[in-house]
Amino acid sequence: MATQTVLLWLPGWGMSNDLWHPIQARFPTCRHVTPDLTRVTHPKDFMAVLEKEVRTIGHERLFVIGWSMGGMLAQRLAANSSVYGMVLISTGSRFVRPKEERSKGWTKASLLRMERGLAENRERVWRDFFKSVPTEKERKEKKNTFLAEQVSQWSTESLMAGLAYLREEDCRPLFHSLNCPMTIIHGKNDVIWPFAAGAELAESLPQAELVPIENCGHAPPIFYPEIVTLAVQRMVESNGEGKA
Q: Does residue 152 have a pLDDT over 90?
């Protein structure tokens, strides 16, 4: 019996798994796994949810597609599980950075302010974040399903847990364990997680290929789905077998 290909889809902070559906439809012969992160209440529980899903996969060929926070989760998962390849989107190895590295992420103080704001006015924080995801050019495009989504499906507790995860996680010590093929997709005009973070990640991992997108913000899966689709297709069709 042929080994089935499994695609594990990990969204960005606060984002809906439904946003993956147009790309998932391009891979009808693959099994799609989309963990529900919307009710997580502690930062460590994100990995617990993923590990539970992976235990059901067995010896099937697992590829992981991670967007933003999901890209960090993907790196940690790949360091400890048999992953045949990853497509990492709008992400990096470390979100919180010192002031001299603000071109690659946020300062701890900025993220803590966002956490306090979330506790006081969830709707305002989400609205401000959501408006920053696309570029001005992208806002003018007819992506009505995405641009009309002004309410996150995540609980307030899960949004808080996600911010805590982003504040605490550091994937750089995992680099020596990441030996599967990787494609890193990053918008050149991303103001949520700057392009320099994706470039740094690609430079740190010799097996990674960087795919920059001009005039793109933080949402390549929405505004450039064909680029993400092609990256996943190439990964799935490649002969590389990653970790066994």
A: no
pLDDT in tens, 5-16: 999 999 999 999
**φ, ψ (nearest 5 deg) of residue 86:** -135, 145
Q: Which domains does the chain have, with CATH numbers?
A: 5-237 (3.40.50.1820)
Q: 120: burial class by Cβ within 10 Å (0-12, 13-18, 19+)?
A: exposed
| Mean pLDDT for the stretch of residues 16-41 | 95
The pLDDT, as a whole number, for residue 139 is 86
Length of the chain: 244
Q: Please tell me which residue, 208 or 238, carries the higher pLDDT value.
A: 208
Task: Indicate the pLDDT class of residue 142, thresholds 50, 70 and 90.
Answer: low
Residues contacting 36, CB < 8 A, separation 6+: 17, 49
Has residue 239 got a pLDDT over 80?
A: no
The string of DSSP codes covering the chain is: -PPPEEEEEEPPTT--GGGGHHHHTT-TTSEEE----TT--STTHHHHHHHHHHHTTTTSEEEEEEETHHHHHHHHHHHHS--SEEEEES--SBSB--GGGGGGSB-HHHHHHHHHHHHH-HHHHHHHHHHHSS-HHHHTS--HHHHT--S-SS-HHHHHHHHHHHHH-B-GGGGGG--S-EEEEEETT-SSS-HHHHHHHHHH-TTEEEEEETT--S-HHHH-HHHHHHHHHHHHHSS-----
pTM: 0.94
